[in-house]
Design brief:
56% helix; globular; binds ligand Z5A; single chain; 8 helices; 210 residues; alpha/beta
Length: 210
């Protein structure tokens, strides 16, 4: 791939949406072509799947249905948006990707990690992000920030233990993949969070000779 694939991860309200714009501007200042996208979503069909996944329904969505819909949306997103841009040399900045599936469906919903890994290999082959910034903060900090906004969606309505498991899996994955996943302390003032982000971006921009 000629472009780089950077993902942002973390629990509720840790600041992914806020910081993705900052990263985009940083890369553009270095003359790097970049697109911003998100998961689940990023294409018209994947956005329809997102609506199903986030809405609160009378019928319960089973864990496997949720998992398969996440990967269905991802498959569409990869073939329509992510891979074509990377092949063209455009960098892709994505708000959540497969680490979120390990954290939410694996940690939160307790789906077997091997099942997730199997679908990851089916849908992505050996494609993985070049860099993942994991914005980490105590669950209560993120939830307080998120709750200040609007009505809670299907995930945001989960219990505290769910989000604690999500955070644990994210941190475990960061320990297992130290070269790719960089932990950003997100419970600090925005300026300090962005300073940590710049330190990680400098590396990948330098490696790219930009
Ligand atoms: N999901 C899944 O289960 N499996 C998967 O494979 C994937 C996703 C890909 C998508 O939600 C849901 O899908 C998600 C997981 C699931 N469920 N949840 N929950 P999403 O990613 O679109 O939404 P989100 O995670 O809920 O994002 P968010 O709540 O919008 O959080 P955020 O983007 O990280 O935070 P933010 O909007 O940038 O910031 C929140 C507020 O905090 C805002 O008012 C900011 O101004 C403020 N903020 C940000 N940073 C700071 C600092 N440093 N100090 C003070 N205030 C701050």
């Amino acid at each position: 791939m000629a472009g780089k694939f950077i993902t942002l991860e973390g629990g509720e309200g840790v600041g992914k949406t806020t910081n993705i714009q900052f990263i985009k501007e940083y890369l553009q200042q270095h003359k790097i072509p970049v697109v911003v996208t998100r998961e689940p979503g990023g294409t018209p069909i994947a956005e329809i799947l997102r609506e199903i996944l986030l809405a609160r329904h009378e019928e319960t969505i089973s864990g496997h249905t949720e998992l398969l819909l996440m990967f269905a949306a991802r498959s569409q997103h990869l073939s329509e948006v992510i891979w074509p841009h990377l092949i063209d040399g455009t960098w892709v900045l994505c708000d959540r990707f497969t680490d979120a599936t390990y954290a939410y469906q694996g940690g939160g919903r307790k789906i077997d990690i091997d099942e997730i890994s199997c679908l990851e290999n089916l849908v992505q082959g050996d494609f993985r992000p070049d860099l993942t910034l994991l914005l980490d903060a105590p669950v209560e900090v993120g939830l307080t920030r998120a709750e200040a906004r609007n009505e809670l969606d299907r995930f945001e309505s989960e219990k505290l233990e769910f989000f604690q498991s999500v955070r644990e899996i994210y941190l475990t994955r960061a320990r297992q993949n130290p070269g790719r996943i960089k932990v950003i302390q997100a419970d600090q003032a925005l300026e300090q969070v962005q300073q940590q982000i710049i330190e990680q971006l400098e590396q990948i921009v330098d490696d790219n000779g930009q």
